[in-house]
Specification:
The protein is mainly α and 87 residues long. It has one domain (14-86). The protein has helices at residues 3-6, 18-27, 33-51, 53-62, 65-86. The termini are far apart.
Length: 87
């Protein structure tokens, strides 16, 4: 392999709105955060599509189902932590 071929790293590129860019810059400014988070999200999305492509794509394009699950888990964890501190 020549040097230019060995340096190749695949990219997943799509356009985002200016508002999304500003929010991402503000909230995910620490080096490596975007890659770490979005690589995991991509794996989860691809896993869901692999299991049931039609349903997964339909749900992903119509609702915020991924973040709903994450936010529910975070909320439950915060409630449990609060109960432990109070108890």
């Amino acid at each position: 392999m020549n040097e230019s071929t060995s340096d190749y790293r695949p990219r997943f590129t799509f356009e985002i709105s200016e508002e999304q860019m500003l929010r991402a810059n503000k909230l995910l400014g620490q080096y490596g955060q975007r890659k770490a988070i979005f690589c995991k999200l991509l794996d989860d999305v691809l896993d869901a599509i692999e299991v049931n492509a039609g349903m997964a794509i339909g749900l992903l394009m119509s609702e915020k189902i991924i973040m709903t699950g994450i936010m529910t888990t975070l909320s439950n964890g915060m409630k449990q932590t609060k109960k432990k501190k109070e108890g």
